[in-house]
Amino acid sequence: MGKSIIELVDELPQDNITIKVLNAIDKVVPGEWENLVGFNNTISAITGETDPDTVGNIRDRALELYEDKKNGYQTAVWLYQTAEKTDAAIAAAAIADKVGDTFSFIPFLKQLTPKADTLQSIDLKFKLAAEAIAYCKLNGITLNPAAFAASVKENYQKEALLRMGTLVCIEGILPLGADFLKKIPTEVTEGEHNVLANNPAFNAVTNAIPGASEGFITETFAAMNGWMDNLTSSVGLTRATILKRLGPFIEIADDKLDYVAAFLDASTNYFEHTGIQTVARKVIERAYAEVQ
After folding, report:
1. Which domain range does residue 244 map to?
2. Within 10 A of 24 (CB to CB), how many other CB atoms are there?
3. Burial of residue 35 (number of CB atoms within 10 Å: 0-12, 13-18, 19+)
4. Segment 32-53, tens digit of pLDDT
């Protein structure tokens, strides 16, 4: 049995490279994000309740709701965790001794291989599809890329908006440039198909979620094109604006941007971190409404 939502939120880090990156991008893509950690603290921040008995009642009900698999909360967490596993990981020790200091880029170069455009493309598409499926699971609705895209535009805020903004920055703009959408084909190409066919994360999702196919990936990417393009242009997202925010803790050479993207892919888990926060917010809000 996996960890409870209480354990997951209690174990979220207060500061590491993932948090530094999220804080930096939140200044470019303002999602008004707060790194809520600790389940009781998260309850109080979301509901405004501080009375121990009330917080305890919300906590107990939230746990019951999360543990009931028909609600889809556990599946959503699994999706965020599974999508994160599409990225290769650098050894934890190589990162741990750098947290809190300036991240010199040179020592990591020999450990990293920038992704080919095909791999970068499918990583972005797969994460978008995982987000869409998680959204549908959290809201108990049928898989629908168009409805998901509309909800991102109208309803995404805080950690959910920042997750999408970070996806655009790290998986799109940094490795491929501000015109990344022109470089990524809408349809799944033969090369991408081959990558997906050998991707354990994708196979796990398609086996577990009816409808989570290559066609769904294509539809979701197409539905989200307009939102991603609008975000990029309206906020003025470029490699330069992103790197300006990342600069205080990563020493960056202009000709190493593909390595920057590979480094951030390998050393952060922004998708899982903010995904757990999204699920916690959803289950806490429902629990609070039910115990009043």
Report:
1. 5-291
2. 20
3. middle
4. 899 999 999 999 999 999 999 9
